[in-house]
Q: What sequence folds into this?
């Protein structure tokens, strides 16, 4: 079980490497395309499509499995390692194919997300600056509101009616009634 995990991790890295290389240039795919297709059917010069780069699932799967199968056949016939003679060899073959396919999709996610981050970096900076400015305005509003509230309450206190001089106090009124 340990060797299968190691083979799977190496295969994921291999898939990432294949996808990354084809995203930088697709010379091998163009060469095969020129050999196989007629002049009218050949891909245009600005088409970035490769064996795994910008391909659908089925062509990508076929390419990965055929590359791994060719490598397994070379191992089978040129070395004393027998890949297809036991369950472990077939399991390693399947693990390598699945890991390579998974690696291509992981590389696709990483490359697309890095492109989106690069495109959005300027707008993110602008958004961050807007947030900072709005925060400063909010803090300034809080500071001015506090002083306005203090001024409003001081005006309310000053506008209260002052006691009239002509009226008697409560003590005097109680004395007049004879209760004190």
A:
């Amino acid at each position: 079980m340990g060797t299968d995990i190691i083979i799977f991790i190496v295969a994921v890295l291999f898939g990432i490497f294949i996808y990354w290389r084809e995203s930088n240039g697709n010379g091998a795919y163009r060469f095969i395309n020129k050999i196989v297709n007629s002049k009218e059917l050949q891909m245009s010069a600005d088409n970035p499509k490769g064996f795994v780069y910008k391909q659908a699932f089925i062509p990508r799967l076929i390419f990965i499995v055929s590359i791994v199968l060719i490598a397994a056949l070379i191992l089978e016939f040129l070395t004393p390692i027998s890949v297809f003679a036991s369950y472990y060899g077939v399991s390693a073959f399947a693990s390598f194919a699945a890991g390579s396919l998974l690696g291509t999709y992981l590389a696709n996610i990483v490359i697309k997300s890095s492109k989106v981050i690069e495109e959005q970096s300027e707008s993110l900076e602008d958004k961050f600056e807007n947030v900072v400015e709005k925060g400063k305005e909010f803090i300034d509003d809080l500071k001015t509101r506090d002083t306005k509230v203090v001024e409003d309450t001081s005006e309310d206190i000053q506008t209260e009616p002052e006691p009239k001089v002509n009226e008697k106090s409560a003590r005097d009124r109680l004395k007049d009634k004879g209760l004190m």
The first helix runs from residue 2 to 24.
